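task queued by scheduler; priority normal; single chain, no ligands, no partner chains; default sampling; output format set to structure tokens
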Amino acid sequence: MKYLSLSVVVIITTLMVSLLLASCAGVNRDEGLGIGPVDSNAFNSATTIAIDASIDAEINPAGDEDYYRIEVSSATDLSFYTIGSTDTYGFLYDSDANQITFNDDNGVGTNFQISRRLSVGTYYLRIRHWNSGGTGSYRLHVRRL
């Protein structure tokens, strides 16, 4: 009886894992977590955005990623967020292109929002659509808290 119960647990666990994998089909979860490869050349061509500024942008074509450079001249609390109908994902990096954090839906609707205390230095923000096949426009805000 003990072995029969163990077999049932193994079968149920296997079934649950199979269902989970099937529900993730076609979605690159590593990329969604920001673990996937990042084009280091994109940091060199990043668009500079000032603190307490906003910029209109567009994710187009599908798979497009936008890079922004932020210069922090004194330690401060900042908030980075998008508004609009596009489902955005945001990633914050330090000057060596090491990921600090990422966010999906902390903002309004399906927009990302990252709030963080940053020390003096250069930082980069990478923005992409949640869906690798998605496109759309958004407005990025960089605000001092």
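post-processing summary
- The longest strand covers residues 121-129.
- Confidence is low (pLDDT under 50) at residues 8-36.
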